[in-house]
TrEMBL record:
Residues 98-130 are annotated as: Disordered. This is Lipopolysaccharide assembly protein A domain-containing protein. Residues 98-107 have a biased composition (Basic and acidic residues). It comes from Solihabitans fulvus. Keywords: Membrane, Transmembrane, Transmembrane helix. The chain crosses the membrane at residues 45-66. The keyword Transmembrane helix applies. Residues 112-130 have a biased composition (Low complexity). The keyword Transmembrane applies.
Length: 130
């Protein structure tokens, strides 16, 4: 939309400039001449209407440029806010992970329990042979 707005601004400004440069005759009818060709014959009211139309096209181009820039500014602001929110969430995550580590370390006993293994006694068979 930005490019289209700029194109409309340039075209309407160029059209107006060319009209002033090539047409400086007066009278009840104005013959619009561009690049050696007669485009149209207009009365003063028609010239006025063409000027209004050209100004509207120019204003449309300006509006397109301004609205595009406004939309970009809003998008940049939303992106910046999302990035800040993500940084805060990461900071909070790291803080909670550190607290969890401390809690887990506190739960572990200071002296590890000794494990004893029970070994069955070796018994000799008590068989008597007669």
């Amino acid at each position: 939309m930005l490019i289209l707005g700029l194109v409309l601004i340039v075209l309407s400004a160029g059209y107006t400039t060319l009209l002033f440069a090539y047409n400086n005759s007066g009278g009840p009818y104005y013959t619009v001449t561009m690049f050696g060709h007669d485009v149209a014959s207009l009365r003063p009211a028609g010239v006025f209407a063409a000027g209004i139309l050209t100004a509207l096209v120019f204003c449309l181009g300006v509006w397109m440029v301004v609205s595009t820039e406004r939309r970009r500014r809003v998008a940049r602001l939303q992106y910046r806010e999302a990035r800040q929110e993500a940084d805060l969430a990461a900071t909070e995550r790291d803080k909670l992970a550190k607290q969890l580590r401390k809690t887990e370390e506190a739960r572990q006993p200071i002296i590890p329990q000794q494990t004893t293994t029970v070994v069955p006694e070796q018994t000799t068979p008590k068989h008597t042979r007669a």
